[in-house]
Amino acid sequence: MDLFNGNEFNILSENVQNCVLCPRMCNVQKILNRSAGFLNAELMFIGEAPGRLGADSSGIPFHGDKAGHNFEELLEFANINRSNIFVTNAVLCNPRDENGNNSTPTKTEIQNCSKFLEEQIKLVNPKIVVTLGGVALESLNYISKHDLTLRDSVRTANKWFDRLLIPLYHPGQRAMIHRSMANQRSDYQFIADTAKNFTKKKNKSYGTIVNVGVVAIINYLFEKKDSFTYFALHKLFYLIEYKSVLKFGFRLTNSYIVRQKDGPYCTELHILKIKKALSYLDSKVLSASNILIYKNASDLFSGNLNGEYPELDKDVKALIDEILLEHGNKSNAALKRTVYFSRPMRNILAAERDNNINLYNTPISFTL
Known about the structure:
By secondary structure, the protein is an alpha/beta fold. It folds into 2 domains: 7-200, Uracil-DNA glycosylase-like domain (Uracil-DNA Glycosylase, subunit E, 3-Layer(aba) Sandwich), CATH 3.40.470.10; 208-355, no CATH class. It contains 13 helices and 12 strands. The chain has helices at residues 7-17, 55-58, 66-77, 107-124, 134-139, 150-153, 181-196, 214-224, 230-248, 271-277, 314-327, 332-340, 343-355, and strands at residues 43-47, 86-89, 128-132, 158-160, 163-168, 208-209, 227-229, 250-251, 257-260, 263-266, 281-287, 290-295. The strands form 4 sheets. A 5-stranded mixed β-sheet has the order 2-1-3-5-4, sandwiched between helices. The protein has a 3-stranded antiparallel β-sheet with strand order 7-12-11. The radius of gyration is 21 Å and the shape is globular.
């Protein structure tokens, strides 16, 4: 199924947006869009519901809050490329209590949304379904009965609905009390190992990824320059990846990059994740739509901070230097024009025009 022309998915997404079955959630954002991922994915992850500070804010499943950061870290640990998977939730709206905090969806709300979950599973037709938490596991009973429990069946592969079902704990902080991060890393490695036995012909849309590491690239950027706007950082990172495809024939990382209103957005460059990974960075708000990321004054001349971060290959450094020389001092407006004229973005814009659809949050393909 072509991500650009996924008419069945378009219809399903529209039906989700028009749903008013649950009284406390009928007027909130519904989180089912193209950022869910690859529509022919062999691996589907199902969570509980969009988090208030996560998907309900970012529009991207499992992105933006602590659970999302943990999920992305676990995928990276197991070398599971988010561009090749599909991520959704048992309930597609954020349930909140009377104080506006995240709340557990009721059984009625789970049942109401189960028809949409079943449609997603049938549409994507994954070989492996991974549930994240007890609510997600229980929600599958409304589609096809099973007798699995999270406690007894965690990290096991079970036949269900003509595919494999693997229950895992939720990556949120509360679940870490019951399932440590170390155990969850092993869980995700189990997923990766199991998936290898069900691999079809590789999806060529994203090329061969060598995965030099997002942090290593961002660290090198700040070795060369003391500050970047948050906007520019995303656009320069995209241009580095695109240049790598043009020059080497493959991407450098397994980062997940989607098309948003102002161009490419990389989930691995969420501002809180950057500042956590690179402790020498700080930020300040320049305007409502502009944030400056900069090195702390004490670290202006520190370079790689005594080799704390991985050293890049000289060819990769040379490529990044080329991008910085050509685009590093451009204004945000000029950078936006530059990325919009690149082939991957032109392909998306052409698909939007030809199909009269909005492709915001569509994963960007680096096909040559």
